[in-house]
Amino acid sequence: MKNESLDRKDFFKKLSLFGISAIGASTLLKACGGSSEEPASEPDVEPQVADDPCSDLSGLSDSEKQMRESLQYVAETPNPEQRCDNCALYTEPENGSPCGGCTIMAGPFHPGGWCLSWAAKS
Fold it and tell me: In 3D, which of 37, 69, 58, 66 has the Cα closest to residue 108?
């Protein structure tokens, strides 16, 4: 039998290769959906307010929805002094609609909503 002893350098080489392989395998399994963990649910772009006619985003493209998400639009403002209806970027509703618009992003907006781009009317 051949004496196969590892020196310190060879040991750390094999250990690092094992670590890289383990990370790569776990990444591949997650990408393929092979994880036994529960998949994380996607957060809603905005909270749904009961019977809110301004929550229908079916007419928006994925990039328009992504813009709303990146600006963290919510239908109910966390700050009562900063609401869509007192924002300089808000456009008033038309044709009797309860939902307004915005000059920088698409979609229906609740007058009591808010986003990161809120700016006081002058």
Answer: 58
CATH number of 47-122: 4.10.490.10
What is the model's pLDDT at position 47?
47
Q: Where are the domains of the chain?
A: 8-35, 47-122
- DSSP for the chain, written as a single string: ----PPPHHHHHHHHHHHHHHHHHHHHHHHHHT--SSPPPPPPPSSPPPTT-GGG--TTS-HHHHHHHHHTT-BSS-SSTTS-GGGBTTEE---TT-S-BEESSS-S-B-TT-B-TT--B--
Q: Pairing relation of β-strands 101-102 and 90-91?
A: antiparallel
Q: Dump pLDDT digits (tens) for 6-55.
A: 677 776 666 666 666 666 666 656 666 654 555 555 545 444 445 678 99
| pTM of the full structure | 0.57
